[in-house]
Amino acid sequence: MFSKVPIDLGKISKGNINRDILRVSIAAELDATSLYEQFAEMTDDEELKRVLLDVAKEEKTHIGEFQAMLIRLDKEQASEMENGQKEVRELTGEE
Fold this sequence. Notes:
There is one protein chain. The protein is mainly α. The protein has one domain (16-92). Helix content is 76%, strand content 0%. The chain contains three helices and no strands. It has helices at residues 17-42, 46-73, 75-92. α1 (17-42) packs antiparallel against α2 and α2 packs across α3 (75-92). The N and C termini lie far apart (36 Å). The mean pLDDT is 90.
């Protein structure tokens, strides 16, 4: 979990800044999702558990939003994500 951006965005070229902002944002949302899901597993309070899991689900939506924007801005990322999905299908016999 981090509260400080793990890279110095001031050192990123203007041409790459938006892609890097999106990647850091995805990492932050993944981190938050993991944290909330772990907290939900730890608590015995069913109401708190429902709230934590609902918030974790919302974070997953945010991840999807950031990924959609990243794919728009980085065509290589889009292509490699497709390649990764294809490799998983091949490895798992899903094709």
